[in-house]
Write a structure and sequence with these properties.
Structural class: mainly alpha
Protein name: Binding-protein-dependent transport systems inner membrane component
GO biological process, one term: transmembrane transport
Strand content: under 5%
Membrane topology: Multi-pass membrane protein
Number of helices: 14
Number of domains: 2
Largest sheet: none
Family: Belongs to the binding-protein-dependent transport system permease family.
Keywords: Cell membrane, Membrane, Transmembrane, Transmembrane helix, Transport
CATH superfamily of the largest domain: MetI-like
CATH architecture of the largest domain: Orthogonal Bundle
Length: 283
């Protein structure tokens, strides 16, 4: 018995070591593009173009970033991106969670049909709506205005689907019924009972939406033509307009544009992981 236990323990240790080795290798492979972007942001063009290319950081990180500041209003564009991303994220969290609560806990005629229509919109490529949306924005006079980006992005089908599924599984009907017996309105139930119970879902959806809006390029470049209202991704495009590509400067701007995303993820990663873990163990 003792021998079998030792063998089983050895197999378990070998299996665990293999899993850890795989995770370490996967993590390094995932982080390498970000690391190499940092390496290029610290090098001059002539160093980047050498064969073999450098894989260790250089000493020109500050110099390359000064070139970025000399070509674009980096901090102004970053402020624009923060404002747009935060506005859309908070709007999506409120409206989509409210819609998710409605579809998961309230009964009304045509609920399933309407929810099915919302899911169908997820299959439509966003590029197909580019011309109709542009026509609407120009009719409203919102060109070069943040409303052209914020208003259309305040709600999305994935957010409604995500919140509906999480609230349906994570908020028991008994709590809702008890609150109704106590005389709570639907909005009070949502605000005082449902919202505190779905904070992990908020964190997950918030990270996804913030990253999507922060990295969005197509729609902002269509409706924001004035450099004073450029978001960061649109502003970084100006770094490619030079006759000679300065890869160190471009990678420097791209690297510092990625830092806020890392900060947001590190701030909410605990709730993000909790949300995924809860979804994995639900029956």
């Amino acid at each position: 018995m003792a021998k079998n236990k030792e063998v089983g323990s050895g197999k378990f240790s070998l299996k665990r070591a293999f899993v850890y080795l795989f995770l370490v290798f996967g993590s390094m492979a995932s982080l390498f593009p970000f690391y190499y972007m940092f390496v290029m942001a610290t090098r001059l063009n002539r160093e980047i173009n050498t064969v073999p290319p450098p894989f260790t950081p250089g000493s020109d990180l500050v110099g390359n970033f000064q070139k970025v500041l000399g070509n674009i209003d980096f901090f102004g564009a970053m402020g624009n991106s923060l404002f747009v991303s935060a506005s859309i994220t908070f709007g999506v969290l409120f409206l989509c969670s409210l819609a998710g609560y409605t579809f998961s806990k309230l009964d009304f005629k045509g609920k399933n049909v309407l929810f099915g229509i919302i899911l169908v919109t997820m299959m439509v490529p966003p590029q197909l709506g580019l011309i109709p949306q542009y026509y609407i924005i120009t009719t409203l006079g919102w060109l070069n205005d943040f409303r052209a980006i914020i208003i259309p992005g305040l709600i999305n089908a994935f957010g409604i689907f995500w919140m509906r599924q999480y609230i349906k599984e994570g908020v028991p009907y008994e709590i809702i019924e008890a609150a109704k017996i106590d005389g709570c309105s639907n909005f009070r139930i949502y605000w005082n009972i449902v919202v505190p119970m779905i904070l992990p879902a908020f964190a997950t959806l918030g990270i996804i939406v913030f990253m999507h809006v922060w990295n969005d390029f197509l729609w902002p470049i269509v409706v924001l033509r004035d450099p004073s209202v450029h978001t960061l991704q649109v502003a970084l495009r100006a770094l490619n307009d030079a006759r000679q590509m300065d890869y160190g400067m471009i990678m420097s701007g791209t690297f510092w544009a990625t830092v806020p995303l890392l900060i947001v993820f590190l701030m909410f990663n605990r709730l993000f992981i909790q949300s995924l873990s809860e979804g994995a163990v639900k029956s």
